[in-house]
Specification:
Blueprint: E1 8-11, E2 14-17, H1 21-31, E3 38-41, H2 45-53, H3 55-61, E4 66-67, H4 72-80, H5 91-105, E5 108-113, H6 119-129, E6 134-138, H7 149-160, E7 165-169, H8 174-181, E8 190-193, H9 197-201, H10 210-214, H11 218-225, H12 227-235, H13 241-259
Parallel strand pairs: 3-4, 3-8, 5-6, 5-7, 7-8
Antiparallel strand pairs: 1-2
Length: about 260
Amino acid sequence: MPNKTSPTVELFGLHINKTTFDESVDLLCEQVTRRPAKVVVTPNVDHVVSLNDNPELHALYSSADFTFADGMPLVWASRLMGDRLPERVTGADLFVALCQRSEERNWRVAVVGGKPGQEAKLAARFALVYPNLKVSIYSPPMGFDYRNAAAQATIDWVNSVHADIVFVCLGFPRQCLWSLNGRHQFDAGLVLCVGAAMEFALGLKKRAPIWMQRAGLEWLSRLNADPVTLWRRYLVRDTKFFPLVWRMWRNKGKKTAGSD
């Protein structure tokens, strides 16, 4: 269930933590040595659109313990609604910050992601970027699904390496379905659904320049890097976000008028 230790902003039926990036990192670090595990999601425009089309997935996603706004459009929407989020808190940035904290505090990290058989390559990259990090990596088989035997085997693997922090890099919605449906079985402090964060942190994918991130244009950089895969997502599906903002704003106006 959503964590009540910090204020939240309600947007698109999600209770998003109203914290700065530094506050978010500190909040998560407080949880690392505690049990049961807390699941973290970082919604962006694509998530919001997909959740609107799938009420069952929305209900599951909204049950995450911590929800941070990954996309600048969500921050702008909060301003439009009159309850401002202080800034975006991306999964990619949380990945870096928590790996650094884990090096300092001797926490164990598990990463679920990558292509099958890629573990050795990823381990070598981690050794270069985070030389003092205790990290274990597991790349699930093709066809991985939260309902099949591989999903349970992956949970068992996570518990066998005694991880304090688990980064799930399987893409949306698969990473959320696996993490949230299996949440009560994890022997860890945090389970974070962070998509491509590992690839950015290890230099396997190039992230947008800071100015593009702050301007809400990170999507354009990703589209330019992989237009064949991403054009439909950004140029077709995600345009549905704007009517959702309009509807949310209009409903707020109706509620305000009704209370007068």
